[in-house]
């Protein structure tokens, strides 16, 4: 049994709440990696869990799931799929340049510590 499977329902809900709270802070026109989002949410090395959890968001969720991409800037959702095409359209609508299935993390990556203080 994996560690995630042993979590109580309350712990699992607390993890999801932390994830959703962190995701809600990612500004328009910026992206974060799955691992960075896990870290921002205080979840440690949970990039894969973040990906699975975002894939289970309720239909019509207003959370900016489209702003979460692979660490190298690669979009995980495949072009030509409904969710992949929606992610690309949403990112482009926010001014994020998507080229060759990638986003320039230096230009569009969100670094919250640079904007504080």
TrEMBL record:
Highest taxon listed in the record's lineage? Bacteria
Q: Which Pfam families match?
A: DNA_binding_1
| Cross-referenced SUPFAM superfamilies | Methylated DNA-protein cysteine methyltransferase, C-terminal domain
Q: Which keywords does this Swiss-Prot/TrEMBL entry list?
A: DNA damage
Single Gene Ontology MF annotation: catalytic activity
The segment(s) forming the Methylated-DNA-[protein]-cysteine S-methyltransferase DNA binding domain are 17-96
One GO biological process from the UniProt record? DNA repair
PANTHER family of this UniProt entry?
Answer: 6-O-METHYLGUANINE DNA METHYLTRANSFERASE, ALKYLTRANSFERASE-LIKE PROTEIN 1
What's the protein here called?
DNA base-flipping protein YbaZ
Query: What organism, scientifically named, is this protein from?
Result: Pseudomonas putida (Arthrobacter siderocapsulatus)
């Amino acid at each position: 049994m994996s560690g995630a499977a042993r979590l109580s329902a309350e712990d699992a809900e607390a993890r999801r709440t932390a994830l959703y709270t962190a995701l809600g802070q990612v500004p328009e026109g910026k992206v974060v990696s799955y691992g960075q989002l896990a870290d921002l949410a205080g979840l440690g090395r949970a990039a894969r869990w973040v990906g699975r959890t975002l894939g289970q968001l309720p239909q019509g969720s207003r959370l900016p799931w489209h702003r979460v991409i692979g660490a190298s800037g690669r979009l995980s959702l495949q072009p030509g799929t409904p969710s992949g095409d929606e992610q690309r359209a949403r990112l482009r609508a926010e001014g994020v340049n998507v080229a060759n299935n990638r986003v320039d993390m230096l230009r569009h990556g969100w670094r919250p510590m640079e904007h504080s203080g």
